[in-house]
Design brief:
Strand content: 5-15%
Shape: globular
Largest sheet: 7 strands, mixed
Strand order of the largest sheet: 5-12-11-6-9-7-8
Helix content: 40-55%
Radius of gyration: 25 Å
Number of helices: 11
Distance between the termini: 93 Å
Order of helices and strands: HHEEEEHHHEEHEHEHEEEHEHEH
Structural class: alpha/beta
């Protein structure tokens, strides 16, 4: 039996080897001149028609109520289609002093602050009165609402889809709907697992080898303008080949704002964010040294251009990180350094707290907003649930990766503006452009408990509410 399988492979392999060789040659040739045949975009358009047929079929069978409740003060619907409990009376934010309307998306009564600045939620200072036991009910109500549905936990789960995309990676469960839809699903299953998956794995393997080879050659070129030009061309070419392994279709807006130097900051959904951005520009990367597959890519990239890799013991040393950043941006011809200030992956619905370290360097900041279309494949990486290899497997068995990228005008820290305020201003711009919910919570809450000082600030704020005789 084993001999029969070997003979069959020996017969089939040469048949597919030649077409695959010409396919790879075509990818390299088209990528080197920045052209595309438009096959992936046509493929995505076909998928849209299939999904629309599926939506109509589900609606006709009455298997899924697609109507969402209307917007009211009691039920606000966010961009990901989930309802959020109204918390107009009280929100336990990390820092009560940051409780401005610009930092959240809730419609609440407005009042001007003492300096006539941003409108803010009525503060406890304006509600001073004698203590009554019923005053504690606000906190009890808010606590119960947070237990039922808080603003953080839902950001680390797969984004809810408006209609089924014929994949299984979703929060909804499906039963038999119709024979037509079942046939399409089975056909799609065989296409994804027996055609797209093997082809994507081969393209990824070739792309990594090609990246390693090209960056090694660039590494031998003497420092200068020619090396920087060559590195940019090689980087864009290699990452475009790697993007083919995911059938990615990316649309870039406002190319006149494309980062040229300094620091580029973007919202973070998955490791694919780097791939999506590197397909259009050359960046320096910053991060922890890794082993395995990521380690191979890190060493390959470091040969051709300056990147900042830290040992595990150095990552938490803020002074070391800041010094390396300043050193990098001080060199005029270094590529812009790409940073994800959230520090963790968020599920493509929101932007969470930006760490201030990237905004203390004093360099020009280029904001970039990334928004994925979850219909074709959920790009979010839940690192606490899936390993890197599991995640890549799910990406390669998805239909495609479709994303929109917006380059926003460069921003600089204003006079008298703190690094935290600057980070919040950049975050707000990114969230608005990408249609994402702007949250002030630290994304690391998925791994740690709330900080003690946050609770102390709430106690202090509550004490201001009480009249002192």
């Amino acid at each position: 039996m084993f001999a029969i399988v070997i003979n069959l492979l020996n017969l089939v392999f040469p048949i597919f080897l030649t077409p695959f060789f010409f396919f790879i040659l075509g990818l390299v040739s088209l990528g080197s001149i920045g052209r595309s045949l438009g096959v992936r975009r046509a493929y995505v358009k076909l998928l849209v028609k299939i999904f629309e047929f599926g939506r109509k079929t589900i609606e006709a069978e009455g298997k899924w109520n697609i109507h969402t409740p209307p917007l009211t003060s009691e039920n606000k619907v966010e961009s990901n289609g989930t309802s959020v409990i109204s918390r107009e009376d009280l929100i336990l934010v990390p820092d009560p002093e940051q409780n401005y309307l610009g930092n959240n998306n809730l419609e609440v009564p407005q009042e001007k602050d003492d300096e006539g600045g941003l409108p803010r939620r009525p503060s406890f200072e304006t509600l001073k009165k004698g203590f009554h036991l019923s005053d504690c009910l606000d906190y009890i109500k808010t606590g119960v609402e947070a237990i039922i549905e808080d603003q953080v936990t839902s950001r680390f789960e797969a984004e809810e889809l408006k209609s089924w995309n014929l994949l299984t990676r979703t929060n909804r469960q499906y039963e038999f709907i119709s024979w037509k839809l079942s046939f399409i699903w089975v056909t799609g299953f065989f296409i994804r697992y027996f055609f797209l998956l093997p082809m994507r794995v081969l393209i990824c393997f070739f792309g990594v080898l090609w990246l390693t080879f090209c960056t090694a050659i660039v590494g031998y070129i003497p420092e200068g303008a020619f090396k920087r030009w060559t590195n940019r061309k090689v980087s864009v070419l290699c990452f475009n080949i790697l993007s083919s392994a995911l059938s990615s279709v990316v649309t870039y807006h406002n190319p006149q704002n494309r980062p040229k130097k300094g620091i580029c900051v973007a919202n973070h959904t998955s490791p694919i964010d780097v791939l999506v951005l590197m397909c259009d520009n050359s960046y320096s990367l910053i991060g922890q040294r890794h082993g395995g597959f990521l380690g191979i890519l890190q060493r390959a990239l470091a040969r051709a251009s300056p990147h900042i890799w830290f040992e595990r013991s150095e990552v938490k040393d803020r002074e070391t990180v800041a010094a390396r950043l300043r050193e990098h941006v001080s060199v005029e011809h270094n590529p812009p350094i790409l940073i994800f200030p959230e520090g963790t992956c968020i599920n493509n619905t929101s932007v969470m707290q930006f760490k201030k370290g990237s905004f203390e360097v004093g360099s020009v900041v280029y904001p970039v907003a990334i928004k994925y279309d979850p219909k074709f494949g959920d790009a979010f990486w839940n690192s606490s649930r899936y390993s890197m290899m599991q995640y890549l497997y799910m990406m390669m068995t998805s239909w495609a990766i479709v994303a929109e990228v917006w380059y926003l005008p460069p921003m600089t820290q204003e006079e008298g503006e703190t690094a935290i305020d600057f980070a919040n201003r950049v975050k707000r711009v990114i969230a608005k452009q990408g249609g994402l919910v702007d949250l002030m919570w630290d994304g690391q809450l998925k791994r740690m408990r709330a900080k003690k000082e946050w609770m102390e600030k709430q106690q202090e704020e509550f004490s201001k509410r009480l009249k002192v005789e």
